[in-house]
Give the backbone structure.
Amino acid sequence: MQILASFIVGLVFGLGLLLSRMSDPAKVLGFLDVAGRWDPSLGLVMAGAIAVGVPVFAIASRRQRSLLGAEMKLPTSRQIDGRLIGGSLLFGIGWGIAGFCPGPALVALTIGGWKAATFVLAMIAGMGIFEWLQRRSTH
């Protein structure tokens, strides 16, 4: 049941990214171009996601188990540190350069295109470098 629920949630998420055009780098870069030909439409997509997410996370934070019985694993730290700021900056810079963030890039892979493939390969490499550095710093 959990695999089916995961599939359905992923499918709805991917369709939402396609319908909102978040998987189109030109649309995303138009949203980020506040000094030029700004396209505010993705702001409405984000506002809709926040409107859905806030009450859901409020309910989830009071639960020990998900609706399907899995253990809830929500972040507990509220600390803003250098790692969070640095990661946020790198994420934002990458989003601004490529017009992709991880979810939409994976969706864009399904419609082809070398830009999405290049982004996903760079993302995987970055994740691997992070893991390598983490293991190296703990030894």
User: Anything to note?
Assistant: The chain has one domain: 2-138. The CA atoms of residues 31 and 40 lie 6 Å apart.
